Amino acid sequence: MNHMETETNSSTITQTQTLLGSGLVLLLSAAVGAAGHWQWSARALKEEGIDPAVRLKALPTAFKALAISTGVCVSVAGVVSLGWQAFGGTIKEATNIGSVREAFAAMGIHRDLVKNEMREKKGGNGNRNGNDKKKGG
């Protein structure tokens, strides 16, 4: 069965779900970063003797600039995508992971590979006591 065909398995990951999940993570991390920056800059402004409420006057201009830059980015991405397709470019799936269970298994394999590589770079077998015992003698 081709993965593009309709499947009744509710654990199948679609491209839309991947994009929505990634977008949600991006928005949440941006919100956390913005909140932290907002509080940090309020403290810094208070230390300099400036009322932090003055920042609220600049928000409409900041939102307009954000909207314009987002529009430009979307436009450029659209032109690049159309150009890519016009010159025969195609988009292929990067992986063949079809379910949530398979995705977590792949992440576990990747995590183990990274752990092993880090151990090798540290020059040991992962023994934190520094008492690496040699075998065979």
Keywords:
single chain; 137 residues; mainly alpha; 3 helices; 0% strand; extended; disordered N terminus
Describe this protein's structure:
The protein has 137 residues and is an all-alpha fold. The N terminus is likely disordered.
Summarize the structure.
This protein is mainly alpha-helical and 137 residues long. 61% of the residues lie in helices and 0% in strands.
Distance between the termini: 55 Å
State the order of secondary-structure elements, H for helix, E for strand. Answer: HHH
Please report the total strand number as a whole number: 0
Structural class: mainly alpha
- Strand content bin: under 5%
Helix segment count?
3
Query: What is the mean pLDDT?
Result: 81
Number of domains: 3
Largest sheet: none
Shape: extended
Low-confidence stretches: 1-8
Q: In angstroms, what is the radius of gyration? A: 25 Å
Percentage of residues in helical conformation: 55-70%
